[in-house]
Amino acid sequence: MRSRLWVFGLFLASIGLWSGFFGPIQVLLAQQAEALAPEHKESALSLVTGVGAAVSTVTNPFWGALSDRTTLRLGRRLPWVLGGAAGGAVAMLLLAAAENIGQMVAAWALAQAALNAMLAALTATVPDQVPVGERGTVGGALAVAQTLGVVAGSGVAAATGSIAAGYLALAALLLITTVPYALNSRDTPRTEPPTSFAWSSFWVSPRAHPDFAWAWITRFLMNLGNALLILYLLYYLQDAVGLPDDEAESTVFALTAVYGACTVLTAFAGGLASDRIGRRKVFVIGSGLVTAAALLLFALVPTVLAAWVGAVVLGIGFGAYTAVDFALITQVLPAEDDRAKDLGVINIAAALPQVLAPVLAAAVLAVDLGYAGVFGLAAGISVLGSVLVGQIRSVP
After folding, report:
1. pLDDT tens digits, residue range 233-286?
2. What is the CATH number of the domain that holds 11?
3. Contact 137, 324 (CB under 8 A)
4. Residue ranges making up the domain that contains 174
5. Which of 36, 162, 338, 344 has its CA 20 to 30 A from that of 323?
6. Does residue 195 lie in a domain region?
7. What is the CA radius of gyration of the chain?
8. What is d(CA 188, CA 146) in angstroms, rounded to the nearest whole number?
C-alpha cells in the first residue's frame, strides 16, 4: 500500500502542474493576446494555443521515452519532474515579459514542452509504484487534482490583477506544490542498462497489443465527445439557449464550477469502488454512458435549467470515467520498460481531440444542424467510446 504521504505529494504536484496548464489557457493567454494584438486577438490566440497543442502532442511521449531510459542516481522519474517544474516556471517568467505575439508563441511552446515532461514522469510513477488493486483510488486522486488544478490556476490567474503578476503567481504555485513530492518521491534508480532508443518505438502495434489499441481509441472518443461540449459551451448558451453575452459568460463559469465539483466527488468514489470490487470495465462503460446522456440532454433541451442538470450529470459521469479509465490503462501497457513512453502515447488521445473538435463542429454547423447536431454527435461518439471498452480482454 502506498503511503498517504506519498499520494498527497503526488496530489499536490499534480495540482501545481494542471494550474500551470490551465491558468494561462483559460485566462492569461486570452488577456495577453488582446493586449498585444487587439485587432487580431482571436487569430493571435489561436496561433499561440495551436503551436502549444502541437508541442504537447509531440513532446509528451518523447519525454516519457527518455524518462524510461534515465539511469541517474536520483531516479528515473524525479529528474524529469524537477526539470519540468523548473522549465515551466521559467516559461511563465518569459510569458510575463513577452512584448509581442512571437515571444508569446515561443514562451508558451516552452511551457508546454516543460510541463509535459513533468506530466509524463508523474503519470508513470503510478504503474511504477502503485499495486494494481490500488490504482483506481490513486487515479481518482489524480483526477481530483486535475480538476482542482484547473480551478486553482484559473482563480490565481484571475485574482492577481495583472497579466504579469498572474504568470509569476502560477510559477510560484508550480514550484511550491512540487516540493513535497520531490522530498518523498521514493523514485528508484534504474539498475539495468536501458534499451536502445528508436523512433519506431512510438508506434505500438494494434495487432501485437490489441488491448492497448482499444484503450487508446476509447479514450480518444470519450475526450472528443467532451471537447465538443467544453469548447462550444459559451456559443451554445448564446445562440441556442439565447442568453445575453454577459449572462452567458457568467453561466459558463458557474456551470464549470458545478461540473468540477461533481467530478471531484465521483472521481475518488469511482476509483475506490473499482479497487474494492476489482473490476474496471463496468465502471468505465457505465460512466461513459452517463456522460453521453448528459451530452444528449444539452442537444435536445436547450434551456438554462437543462444546462444545469447536464453539468451535474456530465461531472458525475466524466469524473468516474477519468479515474477508472486511468487505472484500466495502466493495466494494458505493453512493456514495463516503456511505461512513461506508452502513457505519453495514450496522452495523445486526450490532446488530439482539442484539435479535431473544432473541425467536426464546423462541419456540422455548416450543414445547418446547429448545436443540437454538434452535441448529438458528441453523445453518439461518447456512446461508441463506452461500448468499445468491451473489446478490452485482459482487464475485468
Report:
1. 888 898 899 999 888 878 887 888 899 899 999 998 999 999 999 999 999 999
2. 1.20.1250.20
3. no
4. 4-186
5. 338
6. no
7. 20
8. 25
